[in-house]
Design a protein that fits this description.
Blueprint (H helix, E strand, L loop, with lengths): L5 E4 L7 E4 L24 E4 L4 E6 L21 E6 L7 E8 H6 L4 H21 L20 E7 L3 H13 L7 E5 L1 H8 L21 E2 L2 E5 L13 E7 L3 E14 L8 E14 L5 E7 L4
Parallel strand pairs: 3-12, 7-14, 8-10
Antiparallel strand pairs: 1-2, 4-5, 6-13, 8-11, 9-10, 11-14, 12-13
Length: about 300
């Protein structure tokens, strides 16, 4: 079957878009293989709000004491704190694409729907990458999980082993973290290296969950595989991983990916435009529920 003729149409001020004409073309739009958005799907607590959020946070436990009859009771002073999210300075992810009305009419696919899908996916992926990152200041951009302060750390400083995972679980248990709510956050590189570990008889130690396709657990904890976890930079970069109780992460969401079709703004050029905006913030309610594994040697 002959392919459709394709021409590049670039209206003034717009991005060049490939035009698909209706010459023996199926209306199926083939999409590339891409990573799924995983951070919000991992189970953080999401609060929908249009403005800044202050969440009261109780401090550590008090120390009640034993007293006998008629003995004065010792006073205790509970402490409180606040978690601040989504300040007015927090920026949004925004994108806009223009296209001509001729292109919209002549395209064999539903062009507006295809562009919406593409832009929403790209905006969501950009936010997902930020939330898994080691950057962000909490003022103009959300902090990534590897930029949270007050978290616990296992210094691997070499090849990641199963013993390091047990060390991370040990820190979590010492901080009273419920291991049933945790997830491993690993790049595919780190996960596959662990997956190759064998016993003395050459049998793989890590096996998939027989009840769910593509699901893996390490010491009973589900594995979230994402290549959005960044390596350190510099002459000798190292990898990162984490054990995370996402129920202890709070997300304040102003806008989920919001789509607006602008059919009059660029009417002088006989164009339409699609704009997508996304704005949220994230922070740990209890940073001790996040255990970072740092200094992982990257195989040559």
């Amino acid at each position: 079957m002959a392919l459709a003729s394709q021409t590049q149409t670039a209206a003034p001020g717009s991005v060049a878009t490939t035009e698909l004409t209706a010459e023996q073309v199926l209306t199926t739009l083939i999409q590339p293989l891409e990573a799924a958005s995983q951070f919000l799907a991992a189970g953080p607590r999401i609060i929908d709000t249009a403005g800044p959020v202050r969440i009261p946070k109780m401090g550590g436990a008090t120390s009640p004491s034993w007293h006998g009859e008629n003995e004065q009771i010792t006073e205790v002073d509970p402490t409180f704190d606040e978690l601040h999210l989504l300040p007015s300075t927090m920026e949004s992810i925004k994108t806009l694409t223009r296209y001509s009305n001729e292109l919209a009419r002549q395209s064999v696919v539903a062009l507006d729907a295809a562009i919406k899908q593409r832009l929403v996916k790209d905006v969501a992926d950009t936010m997902d990458a930020q939330l898994f990152s080691a950057g962000g200041d909490g003022v103009t951009r959300p902090r990534g999980i590897f930029a949270y302060a007050g978290t616990q750390t296992v210094a691997v400083d070499g090849e990641l082993t199963l013993d390091h995972l047990l060390d991370a679980q040990g820190l979590a248990m010492a901080a009273n973290v419920n291991l049933e709510r945790t997830k491993w956050v690993l790049t595919s590189r780190e996960f596959i290296n662990l997956r190759k570990v064998k016993d003395a008889d050459g049998r793989y130690l890590i096996t998939p969950d027989a009840t769910q396709a593509g699901a893996y657990r390490l010491f009973g904890v589900p594995v979230l595989v994402t290549n959005r976890v960044p390596d350190t930079t510099g002459a000798s970069p190292t990898g990162r991983a984490a054990l995370v109780d996402f129920s202890q992460v709070v997300v304040a969401r102003d806008l989920a990916p919001s789509v607006k079709v602008l059919d009059q703004t660029f009417a002088a050029h006989d164009q339409q435009a699609i704009r997508v905006v996304y704005r949220l913030d994230a922070a740990p309610a209890n940073p001790e529920a996040i255990i970072k594994l740092t200094g992982i040697t990257i195989p040559a």
